[in-house]
Structure formats: structure tokens, C-alpha cells
Amino acid sequence: MRESFFPEFDWYTVFVQPWSEYGVNSFWIVLMGFLVSGTCGLVGCFVVLRRMALVGDAISHSLLPGITLAFLLTNSRDTLPMMLGAIVAGVATVALIEAIRYSSRIKPDAAIGIVFSSLFAVGVILITAFADKVDLDAECVLYGELGFIPLQDVAMFGGMEIGPEPAIRMAIIALIAIVLLIAFFKELLVTSFDAGLAASLGINPTRYQYGLTLFLSIVIVSSFESVGVVLVIAMIIFPGATAMLLTDRLPTTLWLATLISALYALLGFHLATWLNASIAGGMTVIAGLIFGIVWAVAPNRGLIAKFAKRAPESERIALDAA
Amino acid sequence: MNRIQKTRASAEDRNDTVVPLPSGGGATSRAFVSILVTLALPTFACAAKIGELTETSWKEQAFDFLTLQHPVLRTAVLGVLLIGFCCGVLGSFLVVRKLSLLGDTLSHAVLPGVAMGFLWNASKDAWAIFVGATAAGILGVALVGWIKQTTHLKEDAAMGMILAGFYGLGICMTTVIQNMAMGNKSGLDKFFFGQAAALSSGDIKLLGIISIITVIVILIFYKEFLAISFDSGFAQTLGMPVQVLHYALMALLTFAVVVSLQAVGVVLVSALLITPAAAAYLLTDRMHWMLALAALFGMLSGVLGAFISYLSNNLPTGPFIVLGATTIFLLALFFGPRHGLLPKILRRRKQRRRIALENTLKSVFHLCESADFKQKVFEIGELVTERNSSLSEIESEIRNLIKAGMATHLDKERDLELSSQARFKLTKIGWHRACEIVRNHRLWELYLTNAVHYQTDHVHDDAEDIEHHLGEDLVKRIEERLENPIHDPHGKLIPSRDAINA
Fold this sequence. Notes:
The complex is a heterodimer of chains A (about 325) and B (about 500).
Chain A (H helix, E strand, L loop, with lengths): L10 H11 L1 H27 L3 H22 L4 H25 L4 H22 L10 H4 L10 E4 L2 E5 H19 L1 H9 L1 H6 L4 H23 L1 H18 L3 H26 L3 H19 L5 H19 L1
Antiparallel strand pairs in A: 1-2
Helix pairs in contact in A: 1-2, 1-12, 2-7, 2-10, 2-11, 2-12, 3-4, 3-5, 3-10, 3-11, 4-5, 4-10, 7-10, 10-11, 11-12, 11-13, 12-13
Chain B lengths: L2 H13 L16 H7 L2 H5 L12 H10 L3 H26 L3 H10 L1 H11 L4 H25 L4 H25 L8 H6 L7 H20 L1 H9 L1 H6 L4 H23 L1 H18 L3 H25 L5 H19 L5 H30 L6 E3 H8 L3 H13 L3 E3 L13 E4 L1 H23 L9 H7 L5 H10 L15 H5 L1
Antiparallel strand pairs in B: 1-3, 2-3
Helix pairs in contact in B: 5-6, 5-11, 5-14, 5-15, 5-16, 6-8, 6-9, 6-15, 7-8, 7-9, 8-9, 8-14, 11-14, 14-15, 15-16, 15-17, 16-17, 18-19, 18-20, 18-21, 19-20, 21-22, 21-23
């Protein structure tokens, strides 16, 4: 317990001790943070490009009824039924949003809001109505469980301990994301930038839209266990949005987003260590800070660059006018 | 304190670091479900019940509710009415400006402000928190606007970043506060998760003040808000202070969100801002009607939610308010007179029927024409050959014609059932309409060939569609343009106006 909001900054306890004394634990926490933010970031580049950022927000909220229903139906806590429930909920969210959009004059933003809040409400009612069957625990979901990663069950492979199970699961999903990205890079690129061109090339844009949504649901459901539900959105939007201020090329954007998300994990961990705060919260604060810095100093799109460009231009215009 | 804090606190006691030690592992077994389930907490905390848990029948409870006997109940109902009113009115502006999710962004973005207000004087002073939250909300909205203006990032990405970024900062601060000495019994969570039943009379007063301010501001600046909502460029050319008005609206919105947040929770606020307004948007095209309807729907869903949760004792208020709003929205979506799905389907079906009827009439005209207009009575079989269609289809078409009073059945006494030998004749109205349709068709063909220079063999399909939709005025204008023609491009006679009327 302490009195001041900012504890004294001590280089040793913040940056050295976590590695020298709790090396393995810190390693798993940072690695898990990176796996989550990296995977979210890669998928997120396309989400930002396609202006689906708030669809991601909607999906993360409407997973609740899907997961609760899966739990009530199977009465088990296995990952697979949960995952299936979440995927169904994610796809249903997008389908409902599209249905409202196409059948009425309601704009997509309002459709998103209506769908996710209603589904969320259904989820809450389900949980309350079956409160005795679904056990309610802590508020971890708001903060995420990143700090507990080293304490999770250890996954075994061929009799060898390889690491905490959630980290391994996330690594597998990250791997799938990378493989899918490489396999469908061209299609994703074309459908993201020019759906008309994609259709004329024989690539079905709707199919990729739904594919991306599906994968987004999977990524969200496997990530928010560790970073909490709202912060998943931060991990999805920030890396891509930050990278896009720095470059115009999609491959570069993807590389940069990965690099940036590694920074989130590392710096966020140390920030949280210093303040003794939630690690996911720390990662998000770092994400916001990095975005702020890039926004200010980015070479072409940054505020300073723009301002500097505008000054001589207005001078020139003034001269021309004279 | 939740499990994280507990473990962290125990870790802190020993080592003064955050890294949890494996010794605490017992408390942290895999808890996928419980984590997922706690997702519900924001609205769950607001799920506190209104009134006491009593062993009475639902009828008595309904009576209790309707007569508003308990003071707690009265406060709660008044609270949800005011919240529904405020959110409905302000949400309407968001919905028409396609900014619906700005409400969601706001409700998340106020979190660090709440924490800041708490830190400021280390207590749950409602005013400090109110000021902090409002400041954070307005800052968040301003940042969204600024990001959109100065970068090529789109609005949704900007809103998502502010929403999640501010929320993350808020969570970071909250966890720190909870570890601080003074934050121990802060109960800060309640402030951002909300408690519907815990509406105090002070909250009601605040809500009342904000409702009144909202109404006054909107009444005074109605025209200006209308202009910036639908055409901000136009508003700017009129010399209206667009930015000032925008931020005034955002300030009102932030007030409403902050006050409602304490009572109903993050997700619920955005639902109350969007759903009633969207339902109203489906029912009317006039902004003042939309505002009134949205306010009404907001209040209605508030009371509906409170009522259901009161009846069922152990079920939460918040989600039922959301579902009440969603139900109203769905009703508007399906049954709204102008934009509703069902009326749309009915209108389309009616139109399809009319077109089918008119096509039958046209075929009869063609039969008549090929007999040099000497024959007036036809057998159904003849029409079957002309249309190249099945007997049963033509039968039902003729039946429809008879029902519409456009044809008469000549063999009534012989057999009531229509058959291929049954004879029929168009009535005067029927013949009139048949001539009109053929006339529309041929005039349009001629118009396309003469005025638009289509090839004569390309005009038929187009005319086939448009003949059913040409109004009298348009036909008259086409006629004038073509100088009252007699023959169509295929050399057939165009039924003249006089001939039709004769």
C-alpha cells in the first residue's frame, strides 16, 4: 500500500529485477503479450483498412451470449465448444448487422450499436437467469490475466514441458494467422482496397469479408482471456493505425505493426511493473503513447511534418499573391 | 478486490513487484468460463434489483409497480424516464449524423476522467468525478475529430483507438488506485459500472437539470442543430459556428452519458443512445418527430425494463432496458408504415399483382387488335395461345380481372367454373385500362426511337417495364414532344386519347 499515484522510479526494480529474479515468468508474460498484440495487430491491419474497426468492438461484446450458450449446452469448460460458440456469435453479429443494413435505411454504425448491445444484454440475462450453473468469478476480464500466464497449466509435447498452455494456444493461432496471411495475401490485398476489381478478377469479396470476420472472432476470443475485452480492440486497432501513419505499402505496414506490437508487450510490461498496474492496461497506455508520438513526428503524415510543409507553402502563396 | 489484485497484493507484500509467484497458483487455475462470464460485470453490477425481494405473486407486484408505492421504485422509475428522455433526444442527433458509436466511445472514454476525479480529492466526491469524466469525454471526442482531420485514418479507427486507449488508461489508473492506501474501499467500480436501483435523489436532480438544459438548448438552437446535422457545409456557408455547435452538442452528450453511466453502465448507455433513435428514424422523416419519438421510445424502454425486472425479482434491470429498446426497434423495422419491411413487402406484392393484371389486359387488347377490333368476346383458350401460358394461370388471371371489375363472364348460367371454352368480355373500365397500357407501351417505344435514337428492335423490353409506371402527365408530355403520333415504330396504331375515352 502506498500513498502517491506514481511510485518512485527505480531503474533496477523496473527494468532489471523482473528479468534477473523472475526471468522465466517475465519471459512468458512478455511473450504472451507479444503473441496477443502481434496476432491482433496483423489481423487488425486489414480490419482498419476495411473500416471494420467498430465491427471488431461489436464482435468482442457479442461473444458473451455465444460463450454462455455454449457453456449451458455442453456444460463443460473445454476450449473447443467455447471457441465454436464464440465463432457462431461473431458470424451472427456480422450477419445481423448486414441484415439490418440491407433491409432498412439504418446506417451501418447504428446497426452495429443496436446488434452488439442487444446481444450483450441477452448474454447478461442468460448468465443471471442461470447464475447457479454459470459460476461468476472476478472482474479479471476487464483487466485480463496476463500476469497469471506463468501460473497456468503447462502444455506437454512428447513428454516435454514446453510452456504455459494459453501461450502455446496463442502461438498456434499466431502461426495460423501468418500462414493464412501468406497464402491469401493477394486476395486480401485486392478485396481490402478495391472490391470491384476483386470481383472482376474472380475473387469473391464477400467470402473474404466473412473469412476475415471469422478469423477475427477466433483471434478476439483467444486473446481477451489475457488482455480483457475492451483492450483487445486496442490491440487490434493501434498497431495497424500507427503503422499506416508511417507507410503506404501494405507489406511494410504488416512488418511495422508486428514490430510495434512487440514494443507494446515489452514496454507495457515494464510500465505495469513500475506502477503496479494491470499489464494489459499498461500495454494499451504504451500503444496510445506510441501512436501519439508517431502522429506527431511521422515523416510525411505527422503533425510536425504537415505543419512544416504548410508554412513555406502559405508563404509562397502570399508571395504569389503579392 | 479481484483475484488479480489479491494475488498481486500478496506478491507485493513479499517482493514489492507485480510478477506473481507460482505459490499463488491455487487461486489461478484455468478459469476460461469465469473470465468470459465476468464480461457481464459492467452491466451486471447495474443489475441491482429495484425494491425488496418479496414472496408475492407477480400480479401483486405488477400492481405495486403500476401504483408506484415504494419510494425506491418511484426514484428508479423517474430515473430511467429521465435517462431515456435525455439519451433518446441526444442520440437522435448522433444517429442522423452517422456518429452512433461516438456514444459508445464517450461512455468508455470517461473512465480515466473518473479515476482522475477520484484521485483529485481522494474521495467519491460526485462533483469531482463528474467534472473529471466530462473533461475526459470532451477530450476524447475532440481527439477523434483531430485524428480524423489530420491523418488519413478513418473515423471508425479513430473512435476505436480513443475508446480502447482511454479505457486502457482508465483501467491502468484504476488498478493503481486500488493498490493505493486510499483506494482500498473506494468502490470506484460502481461509478463506472453503474447501479440502476442505487439512483439517489441527488442523481435524479442532476438528471433533471441536464434534461432541462438539453431541452432548452435544443429549442433555442433547433435550426442550427438541424443544419449541422444534415448539411454542415451549408451551415458553414450560412455563417453558423459549426465547430462551436458541434462541441456544444458533444458537451450535452457527455453530461448525459456521465450521469447515466453511474446509473446504468457502459454498454447500456450506448444502447439507449442508439436504439430508440434508430427506431424513431425508421418511422419518420421529420427531425422534430424523430426527437419526440426517440424520447418516447427511450422512456418506454426504460419503464419496460424496470417493470420486467421488478416482476422477475432476481433479473437485472439494465439488459431488460436494452432489450425493451431492441423490441421497439424490431417492431419499427418490421411494421413501420413507411420504411417497415412488412408494408414494403405488401406494397411490392400489390404492385406485382397490378402489373400482372395489366399484362393480361394488354394481351386481350392484342387479341382484339388482331381481329381488327371487330371481335369483343373471347374464349379463354384464345388467350392461352396468345400468351403461350398454361390454362390454370390464365384462368386465375381472368378471375382477378373479373374481381377487379375489368371483365365479365358471359357463360355464368352454363358453368360457374372457368374453362378453356368459357367466354369473357372486357368491361368499359377494363378496355379503357388496356388501351392506356398499350398506348404507354407504344408511345415509349416511339419516344426511344425518335427522341433517344434507339434501334427499333431494342425498344420493346424497356417499354415492357415502363408501361406500368408512366403517369398521365408524363404521357401527355411525351405525346407533345412527338407531336401526337398515330403509329408506333413497328407501324402499329397507337390508341389515341379520344378513342380511349369514347
